[in-house]
Every structure is written in C-alpha cells, then in structure tokens.
Specification:
- There is one protein chain.
- This protein has one domain: Spore Coat Polysaccharide Biosynthesis Protein SpsA, Chain A (Alpha-Beta Complex).
- The chain is an alpha/beta fold.
- Strand 6 and strand 7 form a beta hairpin.
- Strands 1, 2, 3, 4, 5, 6, 7, 8 and 9 form a 9-stranded mixed sheet that branches.
- About 12% of the residues have low confidence.
- The two termini are 29 Å apart.
- The relative contact order is 0.17.
- Helices cover 37% and strands 18% of the residues.
Amino acid sequence: MKISGMIVASDGENKKGMIDIIDIPFYGGNKYLMRHKILSPDIRLLNGEPLISSSIKAMSEAETISDVVIVSNPDQCEELEKLALKHSNGKPFSIIEAEGHIGETISKGSENVKHPGYCFILLPDLPYVNGYSIDSAANDILANQSYENSIFFPVITKEFFEKYSGTWERPFFAKLRNNGSFKNYKALDFVIADTTKINPEFVRVFYNIRMVRSLKGKLNALKYLPSIFPKIFLKYCNSKLSITNLEEIGSELNGEDVKLVELNNPNYAVFTKDIDTKKDYLAYLTSTR
C-alpha cells in the first residue's frame, strides 16, 4: 500500500492574526505559534536541526508514503524547500504556499498530492516521530476499514497518554462511551483523509473547536456550536455522547463519513509528544525517549 503524505506547516490565518496574538498571554506567555516554532533557532531538536525536520525525515523514511506535500506560509517556503531537499532521501517533496484558513490550507495541499485518495496528514511539531510509526499507523488504520470513510481520526485514552507520554501534560480529554463503558479520549496529531473528499469548512470548524483549551478554541466554540446544537446535538442531549454518536455528528457536518479509531500500540506515543508550549519543549529537552 502506497499513499501520499502531507505536512501541515501552517495553522492558517485568522482575521488580522489577532486571536493568535491574544492566545499567547492566555497561555501565560507559554504558547508557541506554529509559524514561529517550526524553524525557530530557539526551538531546535537535540541534533541542532529545526523542529519540523523530524516530520520531514519521518515522511521520507516511511515506506507507505510515496510523495510528500508541505503546505506553509509563503515566507517559510524557501527554507522548507532546503530542508526537504536535505532529508527527502530521493522521495518526491513539493512545497506549497498557503495563506488561507486551515481548511483551505489542507485543501490546497490535497490538490497537489501525486496520488489522490487517502493521505497521511501530519503536524510538524513532533520531535520523536519516525517512519516506522507512520507506517504502523497507516497500516493499522487502513487495514480492514471501509473505504467509504472520508477521514480517519486516531484517538488514544487518557490512560494511554499517562502511561506513555512521559512528562508531557494535556489537561483536556473528551469523555465518550465506547462498548458500554466511558473513557476519556484525546486526538493524536495526524489524520488519514481522502484528498478527493476534503471539506474545507468542516476542517476549519473541527480544527478550531478541538483547541478548546485555548482562547481561540473557546471563542470558536461560542461562534460555531449555537448553529450546530439545534441541527444535530439536541438528539443526544439526554445522555453522554458515544464514539458512534460523535462519528454521526462529524459525518453530518462533513457531508462524508468520518471514523474515530482508538489506537493502543505504544509506538504511537510519538504522536502525543508535540511541542505546543514552552513546557513541552522543556519536557523534550529533559526527557529520554
């Protein structure tokens, strides 16, 4: 099985960038913005490389990935092209400028993959990610799955995170019913999506609301949820949501089927350790894999 890969090196642009600016003090000055951290000389991997280098190397090493698209802000494309050339290992890489919101960014990347269809979409701030973890995740998720699903969202339980995340901290987990019992879940920092079925508006709403622990996420939840509740959520208001309920809601909003996949292989811990804040970077510098 061969699929295309995409590295999303931009959060997309908000109106005048004001929400991003406000988010920094909301985190107590602890928050990194995507465009500032991935190439920053102050946030380097232990080998001295820029943070995004680990994702580029992992994509180049992954046997399931045939080609890679990196979507980024225009002012970073030249440096990213040099890094891709250095670490591509002969694999086709293309650097695409993106200036719209996150949905438009991923949509533009989808238009430039060499093999339309399922694509491994990865964030650029994962210092431990590697080709083996990408191959394992792609094979585990796509094996024996319905190819009618437009997006596969990988999730882990709070117990998995606490066991394998080392000194990383994440306060927000969604409580969902699964097979008759309740568990607390967190999304991992990649998805597998069909590039021919990308809905930019759904991607934008999902991405913004999933950051609910930030000011941006809270404001977007207030903005979008009132229009969603009357249409969909009310039929579930008398009981806790299950994973199936959430899949139904996501599918209705997306216009195509979405699937949540619980992963429990320790190899996937590398997708939990992103550098989102200064505390995360300190955890990386002081921890062993």
